């Protein structure tokens, strides 16, 4: 009988943020406030992790209500028709000497799937003061919004554009070990 470990995101100690160039001279930062994931590993080896993340697209916030409403509208995330942004991991590279992994997977935004590479720094594994086993990760990457058809923009009188194409992603994630899940049923089904 094979078992795998289930990990739960600690919402109070995790965030998903992004940054994009604005007016060619500065950056706008934002975050998604509602997200979760199914995360499983064999034992405690995160190189074996199965990761399925979902983000509530309507939870986007940049600190400006008008801008947030525009980002939720048809020009960008179209949250009425595309409620979730998802990421499903496909490959996790071995950890290098700097505790970094390459994480590959499918990122789906506005219904369009694209394969992306993210960099993951493993922060460590420990027991907290209450006896819970926890692990921490920093995930970073850069995507081009045009790859998902998100091309809305405005030309500036002085040249250039209002919104850059490159989106820098940073996720700080803390997970808690919530126990084992029996894989016997899953393995039995695979044999049929």
From TrEMBL:
What residue stretches are annotated with the Lipid/polyisoprenoid-binding YceI-like domain? Answer: 6-176
Matches recorded under Gene3D superfamilies: Lipid/polyisoprenoid-binding, YceI-like
One Pfam family linked to the record:
YceI
Q: Which SMART domains match?
A: YceI
InterPro entries the record matches:
Lipid/polyisoprenoid-bd_YceI, TTHA0802/YceI-like_sf
Its recorded name reads YceI family protein
The record lists the organism as Lacihabitans lacunae
